[in-house]
Amino acid sequence: MPIKVSGLTVFTDHGRTGTILNNIHCTVQDRTMTLVIGKAGSGKSTLLRSLAGLTENIEGNVFYDDLPLWKQGRIDRQLLLRSVLAFQFPEHQLFARTVQGEFDYSLRAYRLPKPEKLRRTAAAMEGQRLPASYLSLSPFILSGGQKRRVALATIMAPETPWLLLDEPSAGLDGSSLARLKEELAQWKRRRGIVLATHDLDAFLPIADRVLLMEHGQVVADLTPKELYTNPQLLVQTGIGLTDAMKVAESLREAGLPIPSGALTPQQVAGTLAREICGMPQQPQVRSTQNTPPTGYQPAQPRSQAADRPVKSFIYSMDAKLKWMIYMLISVGIILQQQWKGLWVALLFAALCLSLLLPEDRRKLKRMSKPLLWFMAIAVLTSGIQISFGQGIPWTDRLGFSVESARETLRRLFTFFEITLIGLVFTLSTSTSHMKQGLEIALRPLKRIKAPTEMLALAASLVLRFIPLIIEETERFAMIAKARGKRTSRRGPIGMREIPVFVIPLLISLFQAVEELILAMEMKGYMTGSPQHVPAVKAEGRWDKMAVLISTIFFFILIGIRLSG
Ligand SMILES: Nc1ncnc2c1ncn2[C@@H]1O[C@H](COP(=O)(O)OP(=O)(O)OP(=O)(O)O)[C@@H](O)[C@H]1O
User: Key word Nucleotide-binding present in the record (predicted)?
Assistant: First the structure.
């Protein structure tokens, strides 16, 4: 039975300000391989994630065998078990202590009897030519290729009716790709496959249908043969021709009658051999260049928030200027003793926030949440008063001082505003620019022989790693949710997912740190080699405007402090 996608729209956020997928209607048949193709950013992965029930903020529905995946905002868990999604680089999904643990985790949601679990594990291991002895090994000691095979085996072990694969050929060598294709060809005799890919040369020849995506919409739903006879579709949607098509086009241009249905380099070669051997006169060149495309409706560009919007000047502003403005405003904020000044500073923070790209604003919102929770708890506990004197009735022992709570709130709010503005600057500045900026700002400390370069590096790394930690945490939570078939409704991170992915998350972060340190060593950081640090300059019109506005805010803050 097919999967039907009906009017599916995926919004970028809860406020529904932009869309990632736009009113998608399509059907994929079981026992077939359907390719999802489109240039980078066209929405392929989001479509796969929606089929696997992993997207939030959606409109429309996905039907498995005519049954809706979402019912009144909740996911039908039984339907979730009908598909399994392999993210790009599936080896990054591994997180158990042993390979056996990986299988246990992937199969747990299916509640199978133990003998059946063992059978499926053994079959999947065999399918990937993996010896049974690997089951007791840690997946982290395996080579990259072995990890990939273990990951694919754990994905296939549940033997779900649907296999959803995101870029499965990325990073595979020739023989591994050939094996994967063989396996998929076998798989589709019994089950359905939806596969998002850029590797058309590999998968078009074995696919049954193709969904062509552009700007979050399915703009054509056709067979591979139809696509081969209308290669301009690939050009129009920015994907580009496959290697076989390029060869065929060149041969046609050279005057050879290559028919448009030759799908693979081998078929082009076969046709060529035949035509050359028996080619008596002038070939009939059939150009495909101007053929009207079948069923292709160019997509309207997505609504603004989903497209990469134009970056504001804050992203290109001199980092040293940013640090100076930051210090100026921070001093102004720290000096405040009344709410009046803090409101003015909040206005400045809001101005800075408005300059961020929507995706960075979302990141900042996520980063601020724990801080706000901490503030709320700290304010509440600071207001609690307990009396221990004798003879006081127990009902009067506990009180709440609004005054102390308000004072704590004011102090923490000062800290919150400084952090908020700092995060705006962090999110809009690259690590190397941030480090350079800090070095200039800390220059006066050099006179007292303070290690300003190391200080600058440490500060910028800490700030840079906050977004990285958040992104990695969300990525692992999504993987844990997909593999464990969790249906927690709010946000990508559920409490039950946390213990599962903590270790791989830490490993991944350590790897990121190691790579960063290596890259920095190669660039001469930390080896003591002198770095050229340019002077602070407010170059553009907007840079000067920013300095002016910040200075005005600073003097307003000072004025408020003095008048208070
Ligand atoms: N949570 C989100 N908020 C805002 N925009 C998003 C979000 N998730 C994805 N996008 C944007 O939606 C678009 C589609 O993303 P998606 O990952 O589905 O594309 P894709 O076709 O799979 O790309 P690629 O081929 O590069 O993997 C991209 O422009 C991406 O930046």
Answer: yes
Residue 59 is classified by DSSP as: E
Distance in angstroms (rounded) separating the CA atoms of residues 482 and 311: 33
Nearest CA among 49, 57, 53 for reference residue 9: 57
Encode pLDDT of 332-352 as tens digits: 888 888 899 999 999 999 999
Number of domains in the chain: 2
Ligand 1 in contact with 42 (CB < 6 A)? yes
Q: Does residue 261 sit in the same domain as residue 331?
A: no
| Structural domain range at position 29 | 3-82+160-277
Which of 24, 44, 85, 366 to probe ligand 1 with, by most ligand atoms within 8 A of CB? 44
Strand order across the beta sheet in which 83-86 lies: 83-86, 162-166, 192-196, 33-37, 209-214, 217-222
- For the stretch 398-429, pLDDT in tens is 888 898 899 999 989 998 998 899 888 878 87
Secondary structure class of 179 (helix, strand, coil):
helix
Same structural domain, 183 and 252:
yes
Whole-model pTM: value is 0.64
- Report if residue 46 sits inside a domain: yes
